[in-house]
Amino acid sequence: MTQQPGLLTASSYDVEAIRKDFPLLDRTVHDGAKIVYLDNAATSQKPRQVLDALNAYYERHNANVHRGVHVLAEEATALYEGARDKVAEFVNAPSRDEVIFTKNASESLNLVANMLGWADEPYRVDSDTEIVITEMEHHSNIVPWQLLAQRTGAKLKWFGLTDDGRLDLSEIDRVITEKTKVVSFTLVSNIMGTVNPVEKIIRRAQDVGALVCIDASQAAPHMPLDVQALQADFVAFTGHKMCGPTGIGVLWGRQELLEDLPPFLGGGEMIETVSMHSSTYAPAPHKFEAGTPPIAQAVGLGAAVDYLTSIGMDRIAEYEHTITDYAVRRLREVPDLRIIGPVTAEDRGAAISFTLGDIHPHDVGQVLDEQGIAVRVGHHCARPVCLRYGIPATTRASFYLYSTPAEVDALVDGLEHVRNFFG
Amino acid sequence: MYQDVILDHYKNPHGRGLRDGDAEVHHVNPTCGDEITLRVRLAGDTVEDVSYEGQGCSISQASASVLNELLVGKELAEARKVQETFLELMQSRGQLEPDDAMEEVLEDAVAFAGVSKYPARVKCALLSWMAWKDATAQALDDKAAKSARETV
């Protein structure tokens, strides 16, 4: 058995203290089995601090935002806009007005695709242009671009994958060309955990004048995210994977782009003046936030950002790297287990997909569940990856800031049990 | 959930492999990637053969095997009754305790009663049964169309 790394028990990162913040981690399932929650890439658990913020909002401050002059409306507005400040600081945005609240990362990515579909030159995606994505995208970063391509006649291209779960950039100059209008790719793969080489792609995109959109859904919860350092034009992520509630997502976009690009959803909140013939629009970010926004959810996300920042994203990333390294090593000891994606912790996040002999992932997941171990099974909304590697589905264990080496051990023991059961 | 009967059918499936049929369908379970290609051959009002090929979890594969064992050789009306009873059991959310009459109709398939408690797995168990229903309807339609042409 691989030795549990000493760093994990060092006092510098008190995982047991962190676990106490998450009430759900204490619960038991199936007559007394303590939950081992390893489905963090699907959604994270929520700390008490976030639950309290949600409660406090509804119990004390609930009102609609940006309308009304009463005290509750002002408090709700201050809390909602305060959350925007927190998120802006969290991603090092140059301006708070570059942070658009959406309902999730899918909506953020759909918003970008629709902005570009309706844009004037020079941003307009039309029949003579190309869109570039990758084969490892979540469906939320594939389907919006397929729709845009179908509706505009633009050509959809993508980077393929290497056998070890990395992007194949060997043909980068042929994939990203003078015709490319937008390159959209994930920073960290939700199915394989691969961390992608952003710089190389962005440099090529900038050379040809293409916009760059980054899906940071699996990055924002786990590592420091600096939109200025990334040099992308758009960055999308979701709140519920980073200790926040469901129903709140973020799209960060460069200010001059947000000023130039047209709105997508129309309605209340996003306007300046409205007549029966035409309307003018509020400045960004409000131009892109039609209707009553997810107010409590934004407040909850603000609390999540505070929580993560109080621990430190650097330290979370460092801790998760150690856990990932340990998990990869231990999983490789399991007979018949094949990791789909990078087989070391180098340039990889904490989501680890694998197959176990001929045992179908559904059966693996079910027998693990009987032992209280929660993993995800299926194609993880990234079916092209399964097709690429010739497998119907995978089992995915994904770790987070509160995961422990003991949980890795429980998973490995659980997999032994699965093998015996179906062996 | 994993009764011995289910594991036995999973490890030693009955009637697996594609053979001649009057109709063929391909059904998938998009949430998990289970797939089945299933053919039905009818001889008059009798289910002469149900052949299939597929990939998926033990529940979906064992269920196809049980289907083959139960339905082949039965009169269509009888086979439909088995299918409907199985559907009823699987949609019971674990609330239905199979009685003697149900056990008599379902035989080995009664072992799937436990699966009905797991909403995510019900589709796995039903995959081949829905495919059979679909293929049988197609086979009958084709036969009806053919005899209509011959009458004309």
From TrEMBL, chain A:
The protein's enzyme class: transferase
Cofactors: pyridoxal 5'-phosphate
Transmembrane segments: none
Pfam families reported for this sequence: Aminotran_5
Record keywords, A-Z: Pyridoxal phosphate, Transferase
InterPro entries, per database record: Aminotrans_V_dom (IPR000192), Cys_dSase_SufS (IPR010970), PyrdxlP-dep_Trfase (IPR015424), PyrdxlP-dep_Trfase_major (IPR015421), PyrdxlP-dep_Trfase_small (IPR015422)
Protein's UniProt keywords contain Chaperone: no
Reactions this protein catalyses: (sulfur carrier)-H + L-cysteine = (sulfur carrier)-SH + L-alanine
EC number: 2.8.1.7
Superkingdom in the source lineage: Bacteria
Domain annotation Aminotransferase class V: ranges: 36-411
Protein family according to the UniProt entry: Belongs to the class-V pyridoxal-phosphate-dependent aminotransferase family. Csd subfamily.
Record-given protein name: cysteine desulfurase
